[in-house]
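From the shared-data thread, chain only:
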Amino acid sequence: MSHKPEVPSEAEVQKAYALMQSGVSLSVSALVCFAQWTRFDPRLGELWLTALDRQWRSMAPVEVRRENLTQASPAALGVLLDQYKNFLCPRDDKRLFQFWSSTALEGVLPANHENYFIGVQGFANQRVREDAEWPIKSFKKWGFMGRDVFLNKFSLKQKSLQRTGIGAIERHKILAELIQFKDRITVNDYIAACGDLISKRVAQKDLQSFSGVKCVGNTRAKFYVKELKG
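Structure, as tokens:
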């Protein structure tokens, strides 16, 4: 279950920015509180993941769990921890972080299929529709609608960080809509439609196996068009 957390004041948000940008060690209560506030300000998410990277190895997951379960929206922590694991966690730390995060999230239930961000997007706009129809894995798993990854675009394009952040069902929906409204699409068009959350290899594989499209040309100049039924 999830309830709306209390809206932080502008002064509180600015203090959170300053603390996380400074590199100082955050208390467990501050780290968990700021995780809640990422629902009101996506920019806090990137700073939060960086702070987590500095601190989780020396922070007791049982204490994080205890503090998080007192929050209005404990499932928000699940989104953030999954994004750290999928996009930022060093390979050598994967197994240890999996144990750490599983302990921190023990007993946390998913939200009730709600928008992750509160007061950020206009009701019923295009982005809200996309968040609902094509949520990425970290949001969908924890009962939220959302497509943001709390990393900048440059970081997402680094080969060392590339992961498939969108599930096969959601990717199929995106590709079906893309080919419906465009006469021709490229691999880069598809990657962009997925918010840069899939690798080039995954994009190529999806396009090659998608029923109803065919490849035209070869090498760098190739593109895909809707296949006409005879």
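The beta strands are 114-115, 144-145, 184-185, 213-216, 223-226.
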